[in-house]
Amino acid sequence: MLxxxxxxxxxxxxxxxxxxxxxxxxxxxxxxxxxATLTIRGWIQWCRGSGSFARELxxxxxxxxxxxxLAELLAEVVRRGTVCGWAKSKSSAWRKFGGAVA
Length: 102
Description:
Helices cover 61% and strands 0% of the residues. With 102 residues, the chain is mainly α. The protein has helices at residues 12-27, 31-47, 51-64, 69-79, 85-88. The protein has a domain at 31-88.
């Protein structure tokens, strides 16, 4: 799941909802808790195929809590240019405006 290989097609609606909840929580928390919310938000952006947004959120997580290991690991994945498995597939890739696969 972490690299977007399973399940075959993610539930983008749930991930979008989760991102919204995490955004709210990150504004109301600090330290390790905020780093955790920013890290998962970065992972969601990476899964969507948006490395630049992912990099920014992971950078914020690192600034909030130096040495937060999951943020460091995901930042390395993004730095290496790894593309999320879901983003590679037309049938599973996130579509900003939804809709069916052409």
